């Protein structure tokens, strides 16, 4: 359903049974994400997506901070994600993508693209960048799936997974401190702002957990959904190699993997373009709906790379919580699609588009599997 089909600021019932306002129009979502009168510091009494512990309970996570604390820690983290550093990762990302695409092509003539390529690529990339041993990488998908689920039945599972995840990352950081290298995790350990401020132990653990969980789930689903769109549109064969920035940006708008941003609570009455939010009310910014708002994008359901950049999409958020890994996600998506269609130029869907199963009802959207052939 597109943004013009719904009440712009309805009250919705969450899987937890709690209710909150939902912002679906582009202008409303953009303001909620950037307006300092909306806070990420939710109280335990505020509405929650799910029962039990969730990401909003992590007091050390950048996701749950407001300025000035958020500003300080974000500045430190940004020192490890400079454009030059991200670009330096391109050769390794390209090598991993080419290897996976070649393996998939050799095993052909058909495969589940999600299992063979879309998920393994970002898992390998983020784990290599963070210095995670290969033997431990499969564990991260289980932990991440538990962390990102919003099923009301999974509160205990989420809590147990979060504890295991943090224990593992704590040990990983200790090992890297004892024997440093040149991975991203070492850059984070060394990162500081111009005043010499550094992360605390708990802050760095939370940041690393977020990078691993969000860093592979979102990119994997972007690649899967992006390939689905390109094949459904019959435009993959005509797409340039390397994949153009316009194609990647339009895929991010059209198929953004994060369906919503983290809820915000209004610290005072705030007038949005579509109406007033009262102090104390919680708002859920719906990214998918905003990216399909016809007031921002003519014919919003049409995939059109020519429109990329005319109105910036909100797939990486907006404002102080803009995605720290946006540059890496863009790089991975472009490199992945280029490698895939170079190795298998005859790639096509092996089932009708309507028969592709999709994840639904959670933070992350994308195909559960994507049968393809070549």
TrEMBL record:
Family annotation (InterPro entries): Cyt_P450, Cyt_P450_B, Cyt_P450_CS, Cyt_P450_sf
Stretches the record annotates as Disordered: 1-20
Domain of life (superkingdom): Bacteria
Pfam families according to UniProt: p450
UniProt entry keywords in alphabetical sequence: Heme, Iron, Metal-binding, Monooxygenase, Oxidoreductase
Example GO molecular function: heme binding
Transmembrane segments: none
Name the UniProt record assigns to this protein: Cytochrome P450
């Amino acid at each position: 359903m597109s943004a013009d089909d719904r009440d712009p600021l309805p009250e919705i019932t969450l899987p937890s049974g709690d209710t909150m306002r939902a912002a679906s129009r582009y202008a409303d979502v953009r303001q909620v994400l950037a307006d300092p009168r909306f806070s990420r510091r939710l109280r335990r009494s505020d509405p929650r997506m799910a029962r039990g512990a969730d990401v909003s309970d992590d007091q050390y996570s950048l996701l749950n901070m407001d300025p000035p604390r958020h500003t300080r820690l974000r500045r430190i983290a940004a020192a490890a994600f400079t454009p030059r550093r991200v670009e330096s990762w391109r050769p390794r990302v390209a090598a991993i993508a080419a290897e996976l695409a070649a393996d998939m092509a050799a095993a052909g003539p058909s495969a589940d693209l999600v299992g063979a390529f879309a998920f393994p690529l970002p898992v390998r990339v983020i784990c290599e960048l963070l210095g995670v041993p290969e033997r431990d990488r499969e564990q991260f998908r289980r932990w991440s799936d538990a962390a990102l689920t919003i099923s009301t039945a999974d509160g205990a599972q989420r809590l147990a997974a979060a504890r295991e995840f943090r224990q593992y990352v704590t040990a990983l950081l200790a090992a890297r401190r004892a024997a440093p290298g040149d991975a991203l995790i070492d850059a984070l350990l060394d990162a500081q702002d111009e005043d010499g401020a550094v992360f605390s132990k708990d802050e760095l653990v939370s940041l690393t957990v977020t990078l691993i969980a969000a860093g592979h789930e979102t990119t994997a689903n972007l690649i899967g959904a992006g390939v689905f769109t390109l094949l459904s549109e019959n435009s993959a064969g005509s797409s340039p190699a390397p994949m153009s920035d316009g194609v990647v940006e339009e895929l991010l708008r059209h198929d953004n993997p994060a369906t919503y941003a983290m809820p915000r609570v209004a610290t005072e009455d705030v007038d949005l373009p579509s109406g007033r939010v009262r102090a104390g009310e919680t708002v859920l910014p719906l990214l998918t709906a905003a990216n399909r708002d016809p007031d921002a994008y003519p014919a919003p359901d049409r995939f059109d790379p020519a429109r990329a950049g005319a109105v910036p999409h909100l797939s990486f958020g907006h404002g102080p919580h803009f995605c720290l890994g946006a540059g890496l996600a863009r790089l991975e998506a472009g490199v992945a699609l280029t490698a895939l269609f170079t190795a298998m130029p005859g790639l096509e869907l092996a089932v009708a588009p309507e028969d592709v199963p999709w994840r639904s009802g959670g933070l992350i959207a994308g195909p559960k599997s994507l049968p393809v052939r070549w």
